[in-house]
């Protein structure tokens, strides 16, 4: 294993603790310009997010109606009633974004797919980087104010849905996550720099509870006037 990644995993709770767990649940409150651009502005209602840690599966409720929830995997997404009845579903949902640019509207299944893969990625970081199929190398550090953040570049395997195949993660002197860079391929491939804050210890796992994603310029600097996505995570519980 990459030496920096080993230090990062230990700082976030350690692989032994992670491997003893299966699921995380939390409340989420989302916002940002991306959803308005896509024609689906996000309301501030807290929602319950459930993510499986060792396979790519996620669900959020309520979604679209008080008695509805999503069901996401990399190759299928659906919206279901509480009793299991399917409201809408899509196989191979990534293909529906072919030809999309930033201004292309999303339908509810597009939104459900984005929510599923994004929150799965965030709530399993950095431990997902130790999963089979990921390639991780250390990259040039990033200076932010008085700190130098060491970086890891991850190449995601084909079976994992996420923003882009290649993503960069930056860690502070304490080896805790500070920033996450990627391109949003399903929205025209715009470059994003996501900053994370307010790290908590939840059942032995350390994770940020506030995320702010900005468009980034050609020099990887965040454009603070373009906050694309905000996510506040509350009461994370690992089981």
How is this structure best described in words?
- The protein is of the alpha+beta class and 239 residues long.
- It has a single domain, classed as outer membrane lipoprotein receptor (LolB), chain A.
- The protein has four helices and 13 strands.
- The protein has helices at 3-11, 15-19, 33-37, 108-124, and strands at 23-31, 47-52, 57-61, 68-73, 76-81, 86-91, 135-144, 147-155, 166-171, 177-184, 190-202, 205-216, 222-238.
- The chain has a 13-stranded antiparallel sheet.
- Strand 12 (205-216) and strand 13 form a beta hairpin.
- The longest helix is centred in the middle third of the chain and has 17 residues, at 108-124.
- It is globular and about 50 Å long.
- The two termini are 26 Å apart.
- The mean pLDDT is 97.
Binned, the helix content reads 10-25%
Order of helices and strands: HHEHEEEEEHEEEEEEE
Classification by helices and strands:
alpha+beta
Question: How does CATH name the architecture?
Answer: Clam
Shape descriptor: globular
Question: What's the structural domain tally?
Answer: 1
Show unreliable segments.
none
Q: Give the CATH class.
A: Mainly Beta
The DSSP helix count reads 4
Strand content: over 45%
Q: Please give the alpha-carbon distance between the first and last residues.
A: 26 Å
- If strands are numbered along the chain, what order do they take across the biggest sheet? 6-5-4-3-2-1-13-12-11-10-9-8-7
List how many beta strands DSSP finds. 13
- Residue-averaged pLDDT: 97
Cα-atom radius of gyration = 17 Å
Q: In CATH terms, what is the fold-level topology?
A: outer membrane lipoprotein receptor (LolB), chain A
